[in-house]
Design goal:
Elements lengths: L3 H5 L5 H14 L8 E2 L1 H8 L3 H13 L3 E4 L3 E4 L4 H25 L2 H20 L2 H17 L4 H8 L2 H11 L5 H17 L3 H25 L23
Antiparallel strand pairs: 1-3, 2-3
Helix pairs in contact: 2-4, 3-4, 5-8, 5-11, 6-7, 6-10, 7-9, 10-11
């Protein structure tokens, strides 16, 4: 659950802070899949006006974290096995599009920077720290795909990360999954250093497919819909508390 010290570290406008706080509450499972989200309740508990909450809900609907319905209101999205497959098919398609361009543009300095991020990922895996490993994995892929110089396609991938993080925090990783990810990253980096576009692309897409298979296996063992909860949400320091 988000605490006040973490919210204090959020930079940007009040809209940015509300968006980040609400995203974290969903991703970390404080708001469970299927939980109803009302503007008034969230605004009161966060100590903000309804306007930034409405903006945050629209943004999170675009990221796929919530579902908004004119009659039922907003709820945290419940992902089915088909949703997971579709999510990873999209990610695989983006990787297949961008990795050849990465190979075309990548420099040795870029590869050294990716190696440094990979070092953080591997250190987290060695410690068994899944949350830090996920953050480093995100950084690795964000830096990798930025090299393709296709911001629109990279943005499509970026919008999927919150969903992936929410799934992983809820379901965890299968045995050996992170070790295999390390092997996959190392093989990908080696292919990039050889400027072998075909191999690099195949490795990236295969890694995505393997991640999908692991999540599907975890989902089969762990129901995606958890019992509903009514979490308490801390106020955002410096904001005014709206009236109920």
């Amino acid at each position: 659950m988000i605490n006040s010290s973490e919210i204090d570290q959020i930079s940007g406008t009040i809209e940015d802070r509300v968006l980040d706080a609400l995203r974290r509450l969903i991703v970390t499972g404080t708001f469970q899949p299927g939980a109803k989200l009302t503007v008034a309740a969230i605004a009161t508990r966060l100590g903000v006006s309804p306007m930034p909450v409405r903006a945050a809900l629209r943004q999170l609907a675009g990221e796929g974290l919530i579902e908004a319905d004119a009659n039922r209101g907003a709820r945290v999205r419940v992902l089915s096995a088909d949703d997971i497959r579709n999510l990873y098919r999209l990610r695989g398609a983006v990787l297949g599009l961008l990795i050849p361009d990465v190979v075309r543009h990548v420099s040795e300095a870029d590869l050294d920077a990716l190696e440094a991020i990979e070092g953080r990922f591997e250190a987290a895996v060695a410690r068994g720290d899944g949350a830090i490993a996920m953050a480093a994995n995100h950084d690795f892929h964000a830096a990798l795909l930025a090299l393709a110089r296709n911001r629109d396609a990279a943005a499509v991938m970026e919008r999927t990360w919150a969903l992936v993080e929410a799934l992983r925090l809820r379901l965890g990783f299968g045995p050996g999954r992170l070790d295999r990810a390390v092997e996959g990253h190392r093989a990908l980096l080696a292919a990039l250093r050889r400027r072998d576009a075909a191999t690099a692309t195949a490795l990236a897409v295969t890694s995505s497919d393997n991640a999908m298979a692991d999540l599907l296996a975890r989902a089969e063992a762990t129901p995606l819909r958890a019992r509903s909860a009514r979490p308490s949400i801390p106020r955002i320091p410096g904001s005014r508390r709206s009236t109920p």
